[in-house]
Structures are given as structure tokens and as C-alpha cells.
Amino acid sequence: MTTYGIIAPKGKFTRVNDDLAIGATVSVVVPAMNEAENLPHVFATLPYWVDEVVLVDGNSTDETVSVARSLRPGLRVVTQTGRGKGNALSEGFAAATGDIIVMIDADGSTDGREIIRFVSALVGGADFAKGSRFSSGAGSDDISVTRSLGNTVLTTLTNLLYGTRYTDLCYGYNAFWSRHLDALALDCDGFEVETLMNIRAAQAGLIIHEIPSHERCRIHGTSNLHAVRDGWRVLKTILRERARPVVTRRRRALPQVSERAAA
Predict the structure, then answer these.
(1) Domain boundary assignment for the chain
(2) CATH class of 14-262
(3) For 129, phi and psi rounded to 5 degrees?
(4) Among 145, 60, 47, 19, which Cα is nearest to 104's?
(5) pTM value?
(6) What is the dihedral sign for C-alpha 27, 18, 116, 106?
């Protein structure tokens, strides 16, 4: 069998399975607020070869932090200083030490067992691997008709304005090489963060692969997402980014599904 490897600055070489070995460390960033009941499931899906898990606690009032620490020895906990998912991810990314950073949700909707697909795409040559619920082989148990329609409209607008070929704009399962953090330059607070990342990755000319992903329903609790309010924030982000100067432009990004990742 073929082994795919890439030499990373830290010099680590980890075999993930018979087909994939990575010379890179992997950090998983999990923003969470009052997700104590969901974390046992979420952490159980994380691959054994993940090097670091960074929990960004949004000042939870339940046992989120203590449960997380009991489940994951060596867990890194970042107490969020601001508010919102965008801010939480920014603080988590800054604290992560891995060569590859993966972002997942703490509500059980994103499956940690899919991380291999994202890492495979990055090791295979991608700079940024974005999850999609609407590409071939993907799906969602959770998205409503209203949210799906809104996502389609916003995705289409982004594709028209930025020359991308995305199938899903507003999904919180993504991974990228940490060396591209400066290109993403996150400076937003809310749920528009995924849109901002996708647009700035394209503007920076990063090689982007879309990864088919299946979104599950939240296991416990209620979502903080508000379709109209957050949709409006996404729309404003799409339009505002058109006027932002782009300093780094290496090559045009043409999102595609990595064959290795989809296997």
C-alpha cells in the first residue's frame, strides 16, 4: 500500500492507518459553552492519533470543563475572554500548537471519525479542507428547510463574487495547516466565522478541498444559532470582504473533493 508523508518542522512521523502516515502534529479545537452532556460522545469519536485537543470554554455555567478534563488527560483549556463562536475559534487557534488544526463542534453534530478525511486532504496537498453537507456522499440530519435555502443563496452569492465553486458555505467542520493562520486573519465574533474563513482562504489563493461530511443532530441542549440574525451577519461579511485589500494571493483556489479524503 502507498504511504503518504510530509516532513513537518516538528519532525514527528505518525502512522494513521495502513495507507496514511503524517509527519505533522494535529490539534483539534473545540469551542464549547454548557456542553457537558455532549462532550463524552464528542471526545469518544476523536482519533487516538490526535496530538492535542484544545477546549475553548465560553464561561460555561455547567460542568463542561471538569467533564472535559476527566475525559481527556492532557487537555488544554482556554477560557474565552470575548464572546461568540468566531472569537472562541480565534483564541483556540492561537493556543493550538499543531501543524494541522481541525475545528469541530461540541454538540455532537460533527463526527470526529471524519477527521481522517480532512487530514488526508491536507497531507495530499491541500492548504485548507472545508467540510460540506451538500457534496456527493454528504448529508445532514439537522438542517432545516429555511436554513438550507439560506445557505444555498449565500453560497451561490459567494461563488459569483469570489469565483469559487463551494457547495456549502456555513458549516463548522474545517481543517487547515496552521501556517495559514495569518492568511485567514480572523477578526469576527459570531457564526459568520466559517464564511469568513472560506472567503479569505479563497482570496489568499490557498488550495482548497471540499470534504463530504454528514452532520448529525445536536445530542443535548439547544443551539445558539439564530437563522435570520446570523444569516444577516453572513451576508454582511460576504459583501464587506469584497472591499478588503488582499495582500497574499498565491494561486487561485478551486475547491474540489480529494479522492484520498473521500475514500
Answers:
(1) 14-262
(2) alpha beta
(3) -115, 115
(4) 47
(5) 0.84
(6) negative
